[in-house]
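Protein modeling request. Please complete all fields; requests missing the sequence field cannot be processed.
Requester role: graduate student
Desired output: 3D structure, token encoding
Chains: 1
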Amino acid sequence: MLYMLKKSIQVLLVSILISFTTKAQYLQFNTYRPYKWMFGIGWNVVDDDGRAFSHLLDYKNSWNYLPYPSAISIDRYLAKGLSVDLQASYNVYSAAKCINGSRNRPGQFGALDLYAKYSFYKMFDPKKWFEPYVMLGAGVTYRDAYPINIVPTANLGIGFNFWYKNFGVRLQTTGKLGLVGTIYTSDSDYVQHSVSLLYRTSSKKKKDNSFSQKRHKWTHKNTKFKSKSK
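Delivered output (230 residues):
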């Protein structure tokens, strides 16, 4: 009987310990914020050959890019994997590249895009190096190689961040749908790739010192009463 009681107490203590540990990990996971601000600078590639889903990796004939950094981004983390990301990029179309089915169409390129981004870091250890994400947004694109220079776009993208502490590398691909004319067959659709160097600022929570305030003290000074002398 004594042996059974001892085993029951041990099982109860182990169960309480496991429950407490699991709850602590859950609370830590749900309050974890991977960053507050994220800044990026890098290179972008524009594939605007007009061949839709074919020849996606034809970098010799379709990819326009520059040797120097040509893209920047500013990301603000919100909560639960959601963030807002503002991206700007610049490029130059080469006359040797295929632009919407033809060559000899050189020109300037510029894009400004705003995204709602969702990170899947919760599926992994949030403090590790790998962070996949998806994003949905809208923007505006300027191309002087086209009759319509300025075109609004609807954007859908996917990317991967690789982290070492607060420094990282981003690989990203975005499909942009031109919102002019016949949308699904518009010649203003294109694909944009980018490689960026990242830096994120830590999200530090403010210390709650309210417990040290007087109303939370467990000990109080005894109030002394003086009796009136007759």
